[in-house]
Amino acid sequence: MTDIARLAREVAELHPQPRQSYWRSLSFCVVDAVFSIGARYSTVVAVVGRVANEFGITTVTAPDIAGTDPDPLALPQLLDRFPTAEGLSVVARNRQRTSTRNGILKADASLQYAKILVGHDITTLVQARELLADPERLQAVDAELAGVPGEGNAGVRRGYLWMLVGADDLIKPDRMVLRWLRRHGADVDPASARIVLADIAEHLTRAQGHRVTPWEIDHAIWTAARPRRRAR
Prior knowledge:
This protein is an all-alpha fold. The chain has helices at residues 4-12, 26-35, 41-54, 75-81, 85-92, 106-119, 125-132, 135-145, 156-165, 175-183, 190-208, 214-225; strands at residues 22-23, 61-62. It folds into two domains: 4-17 and 172-225, no CATH class; 22-165.
């Protein structure tokens, strides 16, 4: 049985913090969610930056989820500019695939995600955030996204998309997070990791007297576990 109280003490030492910034566009969230699976995050940030630059967008993040600024790159614009995965791959300078065996280009998966969302009238970041508050509609969209190759274990990619959109109760239990949990005595898979981090969040919320979200815990663990570049 997982010792949540002990894990919570370990996590508290990492000083989880509220989210500092959000992508300004749903297109950036889609690209991040798809390209990040099995990739270094610095590579993913570079891909988002190249896509943004293609549209003359120089500021890709915003400090506040509550903002109502127009989405600078609504999904139809992305699809109009990139009718094929090849075009997006060239601009992104990234030909990674969703899997080393029979995987499709991540650019292809990104465009498939975009088309599914547009098909459900989700074209902007504000609309995606509104979707999070509509469980029945969200479930329908989520089920369709699950059919895009490169899903990842336990729907990691979809959960990460909604996390990027603004759902602080969802996490991305990637390899670094799982590795950290296992090193600290929690032998979990992605599905059970979600439960463990939610339990830790609840424990810390009670202990600290203010809300601590699963996202804050996930990010604190990920930051602590990610490889550090050696100083030159």
